[in-house]
Design goal:
This protein has two helices and twelve strands. By secondary structure, the chain is mostly beta strands. The protein has a single domain, classed as YmcC-like fold (Beta Barrel), CATH 2.40.360. It has a twelve-stranded antiparallel sheet. A hairpin with a 4-residue loop joins strand 8 and strand 9.
Length: 254
Protein backbone atom coordinates (compact mmCIF):
# COMPACT_ATOMS: atom_id res chain seq x y z
CA UNK A 1 0.00 0.00 0.00
CA UNK A 2 1.37 3.38 -1.01
CA UNK A 3 1.92 6.33 1.29
CA UNK A 4 -0.86 8.16 -0.55
CA UNK A 5 -3.30 5.33 0.25
CA UNK A 6 -2.33 5.42 3.94
CA UNK A 7 -2.98 9.17 4.03
CA UNK A 8 -6.37 8.73 2.32
CA UNK A 9 -7.42 5.99 4.75
CA UNK A 10 -6.30 8.08 7.74
CA UNK A 11 -8.24 11.07 6.40
CA UNK A 12 -11.45 9.04 5.92
CA UNK A 13 -11.06 7.47 9.37
CA UNK A 14 -10.68 10.93 10.96
CA UNK A 15 -13.83 12.17 9.24
CA UNK A 16 -15.80 9.16 10.50
CA UNK A 17 -14.57 9.75 14.07
CA UNK A 18 -15.46 13.46 13.85
CA UNK A 19 -18.98 12.72 12.57
CA UNK A 20 -19.46 10.12 15.28
CA UNK A 21 -18.41 12.59 17.97
CA UNK A 22 -20.75 15.25 16.60
CA UNK A 23 -23.67 12.80 16.66
CA UNK A 24 -22.95 11.86 20.27
CA UNK A 25 -22.29 15.42 21.40
CA UNK A 26 -24.36 16.31 24.45
CA UNK A 27 -26.67 19.25 23.67
CA UNK A 28 -26.46 22.21 26.04
CA UNK A 29 -29.94 22.76 27.44
CA UNK A 30 -31.16 25.12 30.14
CA UNK A 31 -34.23 26.41 31.98
CA UNK A 32 -34.00 29.77 30.17
CA UNK A 33 -31.64 31.54 27.74
CA UNK A 34 -28.39 32.36 29.55
CA UNK A 35 -28.73 36.04 28.74
CA UNK A 36 -29.42 38.67 31.38
CA UNK A 37 -32.65 40.45 30.51
CA UNK A 38 -34.09 37.56 28.51
CA UNK A 39 -37.79 37.16 29.30
CA UNK A 40 -40.20 34.42 28.25
CA UNK A 41 -43.98 34.77 28.61
CA UNK A 42 -46.24 31.77 29.23
CA UNK A 43 -49.90 30.88 29.63
CA UNK A 44 -51.23 28.06 31.78
CA UNK A 45 -54.58 26.33 32.17
CA UNK A 46 -56.30 23.11 33.31
CA UNK A 47 -58.97 21.11 31.47
CA UNK A 48 -61.07 18.09 32.42
CA UNK A 49 -61.40 14.78 30.57
CA UNK A 50 -63.99 16.42 28.29
CA UNK A 51 -61.39 19.06 27.31
CA UNK A 52 -63.46 21.71 29.08
CA UNK A 53 -61.63 24.55 30.80
CA UNK A 54 -61.84 24.17 34.59
CA UNK A 55 -59.41 26.93 35.55
CA UNK A 56 -58.68 30.49 34.60
CA UNK A 57 -56.09 30.99 31.87
CA UNK A 58 -53.28 32.56 33.84
CA UNK A 59 -50.22 34.23 32.41
CA UNK A 60 -46.75 34.51 33.88
CA UNK A 61 -43.25 35.37 32.80
CA UNK A 62 -39.72 34.30 33.62
CA UNK A 63 -37.02 36.94 33.33
CA UNK A 64 -33.31 36.28 33.74
CA UNK A 65 -32.15 39.06 36.06
CA UNK A 66 -28.61 38.22 37.14
CA UNK A 67 -25.83 35.73 37.72
CA UNK A 68 -24.94 34.54 41.18
CA UNK A 69 -22.84 32.00 43.05
CA UNK A 70 -24.14 29.29 45.41
CA UNK A 71 -21.71 26.92 47.13
CA UNK A 72 -18.98 28.12 44.75
CA UNK A 73 -21.18 27.16 41.79
CA UNK A 74 -22.13 29.80 39.19
CA UNK A 75 -25.89 29.98 38.70
CA UNK A 76 -28.44 32.18 36.98
CA UNK A 77 -31.50 33.77 38.61
CA UNK A 78 -34.90 34.39 37.05
CA UNK A 79 -37.84 36.28 38.50
CA UNK A 80 -41.46 35.17 38.27
CA UNK A 81 -44.29 36.69 40.34
CA UNK A 82 -41.62 38.75 42.15
CA UNK A 83 -39.95 35.56 43.39
CA UNK A 84 -36.36 34.58 42.50
CA UNK A 85 -35.54 31.08 41.26
CA UNK A 86 -32.00 29.74 40.77
CA UNK A 87 -30.99 27.44 37.95
CA UNK A 88 -27.90 26.12 36.20
CA UNK A 89 -26.72 23.47 33.77
CA UNK A 90 -23.86 21.18 34.78
CA UNK A 91 -21.12 21.80 32.21
CA UNK A 92 -19.72 18.27 32.59
CA UNK A 93 -22.83 16.20 31.91
CA UNK A 94 -25.52 18.63 30.72
CA UNK A 95 -27.86 18.04 33.67
CA UNK A 96 -30.38 20.87 34.14
CA UNK A 97 -31.01 21.90 37.77
CA UNK A 98 -33.52 24.26 39.36
CA UNK A 99 -33.94 25.38 42.97
CA UNK A 100 -37.60 25.14 44.00
CA UNK A 101 -39.35 26.75 46.96
CA UNK A 102 -42.86 25.59 47.94
CA UNK A 103 -44.99 27.34 50.58
CA UNK A 104 -46.80 24.36 52.10
CA UNK A 105 -48.43 26.61 54.71
CA UNK A 106 -50.40 28.34 51.97
CA UNK A 107 -51.57 25.04 50.49
CA UNK A 108 -53.27 23.80 53.66
CA UNK A 109 -55.28 26.95 54.44
CA UNK A 110 -58.24 25.60 52.43
CA UNK A 111 -58.39 22.60 54.76
CA UNK A 112 -59.17 24.68 57.86
CA UNK A 113 -55.67 25.68 58.99
CA UNK A 114 -54.44 29.12 59.95
CA UNK A 115 -51.82 30.45 57.57
CA UNK A 116 -48.21 30.32 58.68
CA UNK A 117 -45.33 30.47 56.19
CA UNK A 118 -43.66 27.11 55.72
CA UNK A 119 -41.23 27.23 52.82
CA UNK A 120 -39.59 24.02 51.65
CA UNK A 121 -36.56 24.55 49.41
CA UNK A 122 -34.70 21.92 47.40
CA UNK A 123 -32.67 21.41 44.23
CA UNK A 124 -34.42 19.35 41.56
CA UNK A 125 -33.14 17.83 38.32
CA UNK A 126 -35.39 18.91 35.46
CA UNK A 127 -33.49 17.10 32.71
CA UNK A 128 -30.65 14.57 32.68
CA UNK A 129 -29.15 13.48 29.36
CA UNK A 130 -25.62 12.24 30.10
CA UNK A 131 -26.40 8.64 29.06
CA UNK A 132 -28.50 9.60 26.04
CA UNK A 133 -32.08 8.56 25.40
CA UNK A 134 -33.37 6.53 28.34
CA UNK A 135 -31.35 8.37 31.01
CA UNK A 136 -33.38 8.28 34.24
CA UNK A 137 -33.53 10.40 37.38
CA UNK A 138 -35.84 11.08 40.30
CA UNK A 139 -36.58 13.42 43.20
CA UNK A 140 -38.28 13.03 46.57
CA UNK A 141 -39.55 15.53 49.15
CA UNK A 142 -40.90 14.25 52.47
CA UNK A 143 -41.46 16.54 55.45
CA UNK A 144 -43.68 16.62 58.54
CA UNK A 145 -44.63 19.72 60.51
CA UNK A 146 -47.11 21.05 63.06
CA UNK A 147 -50.00 23.17 61.82
CA UNK A 148 -52.65 25.10 63.78
CA UNK A 149 -56.33 24.73 62.90
CA UNK A 150 -58.73 27.67 62.83
CA UNK A 151 -59.88 26.48 66.28
CA UNK A 152 -56.34 26.71 67.61
CA UNK A 153 -55.61 22.97 67.74
CA UNK A 154 -52.18 21.57 66.83
CA UNK A 155 -52.09 18.80 64.23
CA UNK A 156 -49.26 16.99 62.45
CA UNK A 157 -49.19 17.39 58.68
CA UNK A 158 -47.03 15.36 56.30
CA UNK A 159 -46.17 16.56 52.79
CA UNK A 160 -44.80 14.19 50.14
CA UNK A 161 -43.82 15.04 46.57
CA UNK A 162 -42.08 12.40 44.44
CA UNK A 163 -41.22 11.98 40.79
CA UNK A 164 -39.43 9.63 38.40
CA UNK A 165 -38.42 10.65 34.90
CA UNK A 166 -36.43 9.68 31.83
CA UNK A 167 -35.02 11.47 28.81
CA UNK A 168 -37.10 10.52 25.77
CA UNK A 169 -34.97 12.26 23.16
CA UNK A 170 -35.87 14.84 20.55
CA UNK A 171 -39.62 15.14 19.92
CA UNK A 172 -41.99 17.81 18.59
CA UNK A 173 -44.19 20.15 20.64
CA UNK A 174 -46.73 22.71 19.47
CA UNK A 175 -45.76 26.19 20.69
CA UNK A 176 -48.17 29.15 20.41
CA UNK A 177 -45.24 31.60 20.23
CA UNK A 178 -44.25 30.21 16.82
CA UNK A 179 -47.71 28.78 15.99
CA UNK A 180 -46.18 25.49 14.90
CA UNK A 181 -44.62 22.27 16.08
CA UNK A 182 -40.96 22.68 16.96
CA UNK A 183 -38.22 20.15 17.80
CA UNK A 184 -37.72 19.92 21.56
CA UNK A 185 -35.97 17.62 24.02
CA UNK A 186 -38.51 15.65 26.05
CA UNK A 187 -38.21 15.07 29.81
CA UNK A 188 -40.89 12.43 30.42
CA UNK A 189 -42.12 12.23 34.01
CA UNK A 190 -43.67 8.78 34.04
CA UNK A 191 -44.47 8.98 37.75
CA UNK A 192 -45.53 12.09 39.71
CA UNK A 193 -47.21 11.91 43.12
CA UNK A 194 -48.15 14.55 45.69
CA UNK A 195 -49.82 13.88 49.04
CA UNK A 196 -50.81 16.09 51.98
CA UNK A 197 -51.70 13.92 54.96
CA UNK A 198 -53.13 14.83 58.35
CA UNK A 199 -51.36 12.32 60.59
CA UNK A 200 -53.34 13.46 63.63
CA UNK A 201 -56.73 12.60 62.13
CA UNK A 202 -55.49 10.00 59.56
CA UNK A 203 -57.11 12.01 56.74
CA UNK A 204 -55.70 12.46 53.25
CA UNK A 205 -56.24 16.16 52.61
CA UNK A 206 -54.90 16.16 49.06
CA UNK A 207 -53.62 13.55 46.60
CA UNK A 208 -52.57 13.69 42.96
CA UNK A 209 -50.89 11.15 40.69
CA UNK A 210 -50.00 11.38 37.04
CA UNK A 211 -47.45 11.83 34.27
CA UNK A 212 -45.95 14.82 32.48
CA UNK A 213 -43.76 15.94 29.59
CA UNK A 214 -41.48 18.97 29.85
CA UNK A 215 -40.00 20.20 26.57
CA UNK A 216 -36.68 22.01 26.21
CA UNK A 217 -35.55 24.10 23.26
CA UNK A 218 -31.74 24.42 22.80
CA UNK A 219 -31.96 28.22 22.51
CA UNK A 220 -34.96 29.14 24.68
CA UNK A 221 -34.90 26.52 27.43
CA UNK A 222 -38.08 25.06 28.92
CA UNK A 223 -40.90 26.04 26.55
CA UNK A 224 -43.78 23.70 27.39
CA UNK A 225 -45.11 21.44 30.15
CA UNK A 226 -48.13 19.15 29.83
CA UNK A 227 -49.47 16.77 32.47
CA UNK A 228 -52.26 14.23 32.82
CA UNK A 229 -53.19 13.50 36.43
CA UNK A 230 -55.93 12.61 38.87
CA UNK A 231 -56.71 14.83 41.85
CA UNK A 232 -58.64 14.12 45.02
CA UNK A 233 -59.31 16.28 48.10
CA UNK A 234 -60.91 15.40 51.40
CA UNK A 235 -64.66 15.08 50.99
CA UNK A 236 -64.42 15.29 47.18
CA UNK A 237 -64.40 12.61 44.43
CA UNK A 238 -61.29 11.84 42.40
CA UNK A 239 -61.25 13.66 39.05
CA UNK A 240 -59.00 13.31 35.97
CA UNK A 241 -57.39 16.54 34.74
CA UNK A 242 -55.00 17.82 32.08
CA UNK A 243 -52.65 20.74 32.76
CA UNK A 244 -50.62 22.85 30.34
CA UNK A 245 -48.25 25.77 30.41
CA UNK A 246 -46.60 26.93 27.19
CA UNK A 247 -44.59 29.72 25.61
CA UNK A 248 -46.61 32.53 24.01
CA UNK A 249 -43.99 35.26 23.47
CA UNK A 250 -40.36 36.12 24.16
CA UNK A 251 -38.05 39.09 24.50
CA UNK A 252 -34.36 38.22 24.02
CA UNK A 253 -31.81 41.07 24.09
CA UNK A 254 -29.48 41.21 21.10
Amino acid sequence: MTKRNYIAIFFIFSIVIWISCKKNETPHLSVLPLIEGAELHFRGFVTNDQQELVSQIHTFSRKVVRRDTIDQRPVFVYMTNNQPTYFYTDKKNGTVWQHNTDDIGLRIVMYGFAYQPLNISYWQILLKIDKGVGTEWSFSVDTTFTAITSEGKSQRIRYLNNGKARYDGLKEAFIPESNKYVPAHDAYWYELDTFILNETTSDTLFASSGTAHQYFDPKLGSIKYITDFTKSEIGQPTIPLHGTWELVSKNIPE
